[in-house]
Write a structure and sequence with these properties.
Helix content: 25-40%
Number of domains: 2
Number of helices: 12
Structural class: alpha/beta
Radius of gyration: 21 Å
CATH class of the largest domain: Alpha Beta
Keywords: 4Fe-4S, Cytoplasm, Disulfide bond, Iron, Iron-sulfur, Metal-binding, Methyltransferase, rRNA processing, S-adenosyl-L-methionine, Transferase, tRNA processing
Binding site for [4Fe-4S] cluster: 111, 115, 118
Function: Specifically methylates position 2 of adenine 2503 in 23S rRNA and position 2 of adenine 37 in tRNAs.
CATH superfamily of the largest domain: Aldolase class I
EC number: 2.1.1.192
Order of helices and strands: HHHEEEEEEHEHEHEHHHEHEHEH
Bound molecules: iron/sulfur cluster
Number of strands: 12
GO molecular function: methyltransferase activity
Shape: globular
């Protein structure tokens, strides 16, 4: 199989041009065709010679995402289920905010992390996506937005999968997204969310980017976190917090702590008090996410008043808090739900 052209960073394309006897500026032209004009056919790249176009055609292919399902919510959220070349399916979501359009991308087919409130992990990990397969999700979303002259203004890596278990592809994806000759998404408008893969958190801190980090914390202590997130047995709570402190010292950038509220499990006032104590000296922000019902797990939703009470306790301790606005509730927008339904129906 030919490699995907979207897998290649700008610097790698420059190298490729050099190896093929072409001047470096051809990489810039190619990058613009791919990401600015969003052309998916080498033959349309008319400022490249016929020979070069043929060489590109012989050497690369474009990622094709087959649209299996497209659901549009009343609030503007669009959720795609895309089929890949090997018959796997992935989800991508476009969210409409007052400040722009945000894309939530997937980095793995399935996930092996096993968070107990998440549908994405139910069938385990099938495979990593390549950088180009992650890039293709943004390009496809941008092509849809082109029709109304809108643009992708921010990216969250919060779809299915653990990006830090597919580290190299995720980093290559980020480099492609932020490159000034391509889509040029502002680094501060991109967030990578991890369940706490400690060695990769240190590595990411050392990358020296302006990209935001979010940590899925979901519990205020080691014992409860291990119950909700088996990954905590591999990377214990205190080690994850130490990696957060390293990231803060190294980058000076605020961390977002994602906290999925599960009725009666981690949403009591004492949990909020304990969380406030853990986070008290950190430059951070807490994002509370009332969980959607995952039937397989039997979790119930936290009552509205308890959500506000949890937020109030954190705020009173000086912690910055938001409650995630629910988007796409009418179209099963929670991570992994659409794919799970698809897997069920294809297995029948
Ligand atoms: S929440 Fe994220 S890391 Fe956890 S199982 Fe789901 S996809 Fe994997």
């Amino acid at each position: 199989m030919k490699p995907f052209i979207y897998d290649y960073t700008y610097e790698q394309l420059k190298e490729w041009m050099k190896d093929n006897g072409e001047p470096a500026f051809r990489a810039e032209q190619l990058f613009q065709w791919i990401y600015v004009k969003r052309v998916k056919d080498f033959d349309q790249m008319t400022n490249l010679s016929k020979e070069l176009r043929q060489k590109l055609e012989d050497s690369f292919q474009f990622v094709t995402l087959e649209e299996i399902t497209k659901l549009e919510s009343k609030d503007g959220t669009v959720k795609f289920l895309f089929g890949l070349h090997d018959a796997h399916a992935i989800e991508t979501v476009i969210m409409r905010h007052s400040y722009g359009n945000s894309i939530c991308v997937t980095t793995q087919v399935g996930c092996r992390i096993g968070c107990t409130f998440c549908a994405s992990t139910l069938g385990g990990l099938k495979r990593n996506l390549t950088a180009g397969e992650i890039v293709a999700q943004v390009v496809t979303a941008q092509q849809m937005l082109d029709a109304t002259e809108e643009r992708v203004s921010s990216i969250v890596i919060m779809g299915s999968g653990e990006p830090f278990e597919n580290y190299d592809a995720t980093l290559a994806f980020l480099r492609i997204m932020i490159h000034e000759k391509g889509l040029h998404i502002g680094q501060r408008h991109i967030t990578v969310s991890t369940s706490g893969i400690v060695p990769s958190m240190y590595k990411f801190a050392d990358e020296n980017t302006q990209i935001n980090l979010a940590l899925s914390i979901h519990a205020p202590n080691d014992k409860l976190r291990s119950k909700l997130m088996p990954v905590n047995r591999r990377f214990p709570f205190e080690d994850v917090m130490e990696a957060c402190r390293y990231y803060l010292a190294k980058t000076g950038r605020r961390i977002t702590f994602e906290y999925a509220l599960i009725g009666g499990v981690n949403d009591r006032p004492e949990h909020a008090e304990e969380l406030a104590e853990v986070l008290k000296d950190l430059l951070c922000h807490v994002n509370l996410i009332p969980v959607n019902h995952v039937p397989e797990r039997n979790y119930v939703r936290t009552p509205r008043n308890d959500i506000f009470e949890f937020a109030r306790i954190l705020e009173n301790k000086g912690i910055n808090v938001t409650i995630r606005r629910e988007q796409g509730h009418d179209i099963a927008a929670a991570c992994g739900q659409l794919r799970a339904k698809h897997m069920e129906s294809t297995a029948r």
